[in-house]
Prior knowledge:
Blueprint: E1 4-9, E2 16-21, E3 25-29, E4 45-47, E5 52-53, E6 55-56, E7 59-60, E8 68-69, E9 75-79, E10 82-84, E11 87-89, E12 92-94, H1 99-105
Antiparallel strand pairs: 1-2, 2-3, 3-4, 4-5, 5-8, 6-7, 8-9, 9-10, 11-12
Amino acid sequence: xxxxxxxxxxxxxxxTLYVSQSTDFTEYFKxxxxxxxxxxxxxxxxxxxGYKEWRVNGKLHRLDGPAVEGxxxxxxxxxxxxxxxxxxxxxxxxxxxxxxxxxxxx
Length: 106
């Protein structure tokens, strides 16, 4: 499986990211050593089968949706590496704290 390496400019932060791409997935890293997964303008890991992860500074993190989207449709919410449990009620997701409240705390 051949891998290619490129750089990418994040459209939100303006940071230069380091990209590793193979035939079935793409990863975005903050560091040139490619140890810290990181991307602010989209998922930091994307598999061809539909699996995606959003990470910031290596931690699962997303404020505008789930930080993990599985190929079979499952979704997990994380903020700054902490898992958020949400319940679906009356046509919307609800939790003990809103994602906006969590963002204000960061």
